[in-house]
Amino acid sequence: MTEQVTDNPARSRYELDVDGKTVFANYRRVGSTLQIPYVEAPPSLRGTGAAGRLMRGVMETARSEGMKVVPICSYAAAWIRRHPEFHDLLA
């Protein structure tokens, strides 16, 4: 099973489909900065690592697009603190 984070610009969010359920991170683009105000996983996916896999994909996308990240959501901020390999992306 290959999971891929996709951009849904119509809803201003990155999404990850896991067994027909969607984990998502809302975003706002301000110039070359990606603000992440909210991350949500359906209750049945909480504790499975799905939101972490989503965040990894979001951060890899930000890196590939040359963007800096502002984690407004407490989950996103905590996830980034635990992953120093992405600290260079913090705005």
Automatic annotation (TrEMBL):
Residues in N-acetyltransferase domain copies: 6-91
InterPro entries hit by this protein: Acyl_CoA_acyltransferase, Gcn5-rel_NAT, GNAT_YJDJ
Pfam families reported in the protein's UniProt record: Acetyltransf_CG
PANTHER family reported for this sequence: PROTEIN NATD1
Protein name: N-acetyltransferase
Species per Swiss-Prot/TrEMBL record: Skermanella cutis
